[in-house]
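Hi everyone,

Forwarding the result from last night's run.
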Amino acid sequence: MTQPAPGPVPGSAARILLADDHTLVRRGVRLILDAEPDLSVVTEAADGAEAVAQARGLDIDLAVLDVAMPRRTGLQAARELARLRPGLRILMLTMYDNEQYFFEALRAGACGYVLKSVADRDLVEACRAALRDEPFIYPGAETTLIRTYLDRARGGGPLPDRPITEREEEILKLVAEGHSSKEIGDLLVISPKTVERHRANLLQKLGLRDRLELTRYAIRVGLIEP
C-alpha cells in the first residue's frame, strides 16, 4: 500500500531528489538548491528509472526531474512516483519551452515546470511553491489555466486524451533509442511479438511509416533528445 509523503518537518530543509542525465546540469542545479537553507539535495539520479528506485528507498519531500532522460523519461518517472507516493511533490526541469510538455507534466502528477535556461532565476521559487503544493510555471503562462487544469484533474473532470498508452510510450522511447524488439522485450519482460504488435499500433495511431519517423516523433514530444 502506498503512503503519502509527509512533507518536510517545520524548520528543517526539504529533502530533494535531483534527476538529470547530464552531470554538469546536476552539479549546477545542486549548487543553486544547496545554497538555500530550506532546501537540500540528498540524492541524485542519472535517469528516470534510477530516480524511481531512489525514491522507493529514501525519505524525500520533492523530486526535481529532467523531462528527457535515458531508459525512462522524467514524465514516465513522474507518473510512477505519483502512483507510488501520492503526496510526493514533483517538479519538472526542461530545456523545452513547449505547452504540450507542460500539460503532460501536470497529467503525470507534477505541480511545476522550470526551464533550464532560467533555472538560476526560477528554480528556488518553483521548489518552494511545489512544497506548498502550489502550481508553478515559467513567467508568461497563465496561472489560472494551471489551476483550472489541476482542479479538473483532481475533481475527475474530462482531460484531453493522450494519443498513445503508457506502454506504447515506453516502447516508442526504446525503439527511438535504437533497441531491437528482442532487447525491448527483455527490458520490459514481454515477448518480441508483443513489442512488434505495439510498434505496429504506434505506426497506425500516429500515422507514421517506419522507425525513422517514430524517432523523429519521439524527439518532437521530448521522449529523447536529438
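The CA atoms of residues 106 and 158 lie 14 Å apart.

Cheers,
N.
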